[in-house]
């Protein structure tokens, strides 16, 4: 009897607490004029336990505790859907305040974004690694705020190369071809060099090879040079020296990066261009891998392809002050370090880069840290890049087929057309 | 009081008006009854069609911003696509090829299932399987069975000595097309066979008896009696398959995504590919597709009327 009374009174007390809590929350929201920031971010996790929701909600909670007048509404979207969802948000006028995703320049074209200096304190702005800050510029004004980065390097299977008598990783294209031939001779079942030019990321592999020949997507004046002589020559070389002799996949244009990564992690590929996420995959697959600079036509490159994901702030709701407070908080060393370590990604801020290179916990990433300051990028600041990139993904890979000059020429025509329509 | 009077005074003409309205309603006939259905068609068919056509005249940025009127630019852009010619050729070959193969094989299958044999009920049920399974699922299933490194079909063919080493069937358009057509025929067979089987069962036994009495051979009976009497069912099968196969998206998207480039794309898949770079141009492709389907439906109507006259 006594026990039941106790339970009853406990239930009453709990009920009362819940009620007052609800009442308090409701009254606070309407009365004191708090501002709610809408944050939309991409999900870097691959399961519920390491979803980016966990990270962002923690950041939001700590930020709200320090800034009671600002609430942060976190919405994390997976990579497959985020572009379409953001598009819908913009079209329907439900624009986020802060967005973290893969590209920013297309939004600049429609004048939707704050400049970086408008929403970052000078200290935070200064702390960004220069190459990345530069890559966030459109016509000399920075809009894109780098968030995380990654760089490419040549991964090779030490055992496969050693078995074939190749003692050191290839430095030039000729070395790479010789190594691939040796691997094929010794072990005909593996893919000597994995060349993924399928729609998943043809624009990446293409640029890496073109850089090796002094080519690239744009010239000094920022205009597209997709069919430059150096680029055509690059694909002619690939076709004659890797594809036709069977030293890579038989249909590179239909082979996606994830296939190449999976093959390498299963010990079925000798060499490929990879980024840091391949480190863990290789370890899981028990592959003894090595990392070397990207081979160029005449010798190893001292730069590489750098890739960054971006943060941006929308002008729509006019919450400039609140956004600045939030971004300064999110870009503190504590938070960026936590995110980079959570997903084994590369930092874009000086203090975190310093910390990660010196704290000894990231030996795996060391070859990549060296590459970061010298990284080359896609023409991210070009507002037409997203559309051009989509075209390269779709048909760029077929340039290793019959007629590189024609494929690249068609692409160049399309790119010029897209740029003219901007 | 006065208001009462006025309203009273107006009563007769009002009742007269309501009388004409009733006759108006009467003239409307069944319209009020089919109204909800019409409304549904307007909302889920006509309005999207209008939106699709309107989008094809708009300039829309990659970020989803509508930048204004594009006039006929998107159509001009579409017809300038270097791939469009080969895509249309591929669509014609694909549609005609798959439908022709499906019809020929289904004729044989229907004949087989029309015979009495032990286990007929079971095999008739089994034929439903490819139909009951989701087409996308079937396509993805075949994609993995044909996978270069792990595909079970590749392993099987290597073990049987049909090929020397596992091949990348879906990466090369010249081998991807036949495989995709095979899958498309595979998923079209059940419906077509059942249609023809139903047709075969409407042919009265006496006709065959009469033919036998007149001394007609097997082939002659089939050509002169079965085929002509099967024509209505055959035509329905052809036309429905034409539309289905023309619009067939899951088989191609599930197996090759139309790639490399647009080398294994039909116009439907090509429209989807265009979506990633230019929504306006993609909508223009949709409009062209829509026109092609309308032409096919018109052909169907014509054919079915001709069919009625024959019967």
Automatic annotation (TrEMBL), chain A:
The keyword Chloroplast does not apply. InterPro entries: Bact_solute-bd_prot1 (IPR050490), SBP (IPR006059), SBP_1_CS (IPR006061). Residues 1-23 form the signal peptide. Keywords: Signal, Transport. Gene3D superfamilies: Periplasmic binding protein-like II. Belongs to the bacterial solute-binding protein 1 family. This is ABC transporter substrate-binding protein. It comes from Streptomyces griseorubens.
Automatic annotation (TrEMBL), chain B:
InterPro entries: ABC_transporter_permease, MetI-like, MetI-like_sf. Residues 1-23 are annotated as: Disordered. It comes from the Bacteria. The keyword Chloroplast does not apply. The chain crosses the membrane at residues 31-50, 87-113, 125-146, 176-197, 233-253, 283-301. It is a multi-pass membrane protein. Coiled coil: none annotated. Keywords: Cell membrane, Membrane, Transmembrane, Transmembrane helix, Transport. Residues 88-300 form the ABC transmembrane type-1 domain. It is found in: Cell membrane. PROSITE patterns: ABC_TM1. Belongs to the binding-protein-dependent transport system permease family. This is ABC transporter permease. It comes from Streptomyces griseorubens.
